[in-house]
Amino acid sequence: MRHSLLRKAFAAGFLFCLLTGNLWAQDYRLASPDGKLNIYIDTAEALTWSIEQDGNTIMLPSAIALKAREDGPNHKEITLGTSVKVSKASQNEVRTSFETPFYKRATVQDHYNQLLLKCKGGYSVEFRAYDDGAAYRFILEQRKPLFIEQEVAEFNFEEDYHAFIPYVNDNRGGERYCYSFESYYDECKLSAMKPDSLAITPFMVDLGNGHKAVIMDAGVENYPGMFLLRNNDKPHALTAAFAPYPLEETVGGHNRLNLVPTRRADYLAHTDARQTLPWRVILVSEKDTQLADNDMAQRLAPVCRLTDTSWIIPGKVAWDWWNTCNLTGVDFKAGMNTPTYKAYIDFAAENHLEYIIIDEGWSSPESLMDVIPEINLEELTAYGNQKHVGIILWSSWRNAVKDTDNTFRHYSELGIKGFKIDFFDRDDQPVIRSLYELAQKAADYHLVLDYHGIKPAGIQRAYPNILNFEGVKGLENAKWEPIANGQTLHDFPRYDVSAPYLRMLAGPMDYTPGATINATRSTFRAINDHPMSQGTRVHQMAMYTLFEAPLQMLADSPSKYRKEQECTDFIAKVPTVFDETIALDGKVGEYICLARCKDGIWYAAAMTNWNPRQCIIDLSFLSEGEYEAEIFSDGINADREATDYRRDIRTVKAGDKLHIEMASGGGWTARITPKK
């Protein structure tokens, strides 16, 4: 990053504005509370914004605009962000906080400086400068609803930086914007990006010297989500893309589980006359740990819309699908049937897990009200109530939106605790609306939700009964990972230590960890009915602390967990929501170390990529007094036998430094309890 030459000019322009009182002046500057980050806004001809930090250019001037037409008989065309005339500019500092009962910390601090530009033509643009990033959004103040035909959101960089790029691939039904939001990270220079391939966000640009810029959207409601494309008209530049509004759709995609658009409109969204659009965000970090523990998605999200959240219970789930209902030592044929799920309930109760999931197959492909004869839900809910274990049911999105009110009422009255709703695989405006509608309806009937085939974008704060989201390359991919020339096509451990710095910025992720069959790089094989993980046993165990997931799965078979009860006892005790989180150490793509606290007990964990690694865990976050640390670390032979681990109990105190060693694809994790 080079020293910016724009600072002086922009500062002079802002000063001119202040001295003359000319609200049509061209330049504005907004500084972060700590004064290090500056946003420069230019309204001379077209609206642009740029960012610098400590005199270094983060982003060059980048265009902001909307093209729309009125929803009326004349279809009047409107362009916002060109020929800008600011009628009022107001700046203020905001210092507040809010409680987050289903998050990685109990309270989020929200401190920023704000600039609101009220513009001629019926709109405003709000900018926020945080110590760790910058954001803006349009506020529509029209007399009539609008069809948004195009949104211009550019992100122009000074140099050809290295980037972490989650490309869209594996489109459903061949439709460009129909995708599961699960991507590994391609790593290349901005100029080497595929010219016409969509990328999802968060999207990371490595600015050098440890500095990163991450592009994302936030507070997405009644508007499509944001993709990114290489801007072929400018060097080192990205531009936003959005799914056009779907006009017609058909049943299709994987196993005919999707509603695939077959015709789209010439507009992105139909908005209300007065509507606030989503935030466009750039996070700025000086070290990677700032990304491993970041609250921006929560800060910019809609406030909670539920007056009563006491019924929402986060927790862990005994899950059937990944392990294909493989049970041993039972006297019945395991599968999609009542005895199998009684066995899962028994396991959950033994280990104090809150839920089981009955995944795809319990109902007909076309109706949630048509339960297969092998499943007796009345018997299972009664058995679960007796054992204090709730049941969550799987559903495709296209079935969930059929007669939602009656369906949710029926299963709530039956005693079902929630739904895992899968295969959204779109984030156009109707799907985003559906996310909110389903969440509200579920809340009406005290049902929790787990959304798959979509990533979070702020709704989790508005509706905390949505406990988790997929939108991540989780453990399920190990079931079908290709092997070429004796090597896996994808590097799971590297992804595992990349996603916490990137995907997790958007919100919780349903990675579904917990494999007990663990493999080295050379011994891994994809076996659908007997799946394994890449990396060590403790690598899997560490995920329960490292990955945000208010609803967290135990993906493997109860039979296997019982044979590994020492490990099962540990992961079963790790909470899924916390009072405090501290990022200790790490580097994106290489390793991560975090500590989290719940009710005075600390949970610390670390993971590495395929490189063996030594780290120091500094326990200075502990309060005074002695603690008992239950520690799981890679065994001495974990480099050859990935299931090898060591369990130790030791006394620790604040200020101690634990020297840990992680094997290739390894991990480390500890539960640190105050001594009485």
Q: What features would you highlight for this structure?
A:
disordered N terminus, alpha+beta, 42 strands, Beta-galactosidase, Chain A, domain 5, TIM Barrel, globular, 676 residues, nine-stranded antiparallel β-sheet, ten-stranded antiparallel β-sheet
Give a verbal description of the structure.
With 676 residues, this protein is α+β, with helices and mostly antiparallel strands. The protein folds into 2 domains: 6-299, Beta-galactosidase, Chain A, domain 5 (Distorted Sandwich), CATH 2.70.98; 315-578, Aldolase class I (TIM Barrel, Alpha-Beta Barrel), CATH 3.20.20.70. 17% of the residues lie in helices and 38% in strands. It contains 14 helices and 42 strands. Strands 6, 7, 8, 9, 11, 12, 13, 14, 20 and 21 form a 10-stranded antiparallel β-sheet that branches. β24 and β25 (367-371) form a beta hairpin. α4 runs parallel beside α5. The longest helix is centred in the middle third of the chain and has 16 residues, at 429-444. The protein is globular. The termini are far apart. The relative contact order is 0.09. Residues 1-22 have low confidence and may be disordered.
Number of individual domains: 2
What top-tier CATH class of the largest domain fits best?
A: Mainly Beta
In angstroms, what separates the terminal alpha carbons? 52 Å
Cα-atom radius of gyration: 25 Å
Main β-sheet, in a few words? 10 strands, antiparallel
Kindly name the structural category: alpha+beta
- Topology-level CATH name of the largest domain: Beta-galactosidase, Chain A, domain 5
**Average predicted confidence as pLDDT:** 95
Helical content stands at 10-25%
CATH architecture of the largest domain: Distorted Sandwich
Uncertain segments are 1-22
- Strand proportion: 35-45%
Number of helices: 14
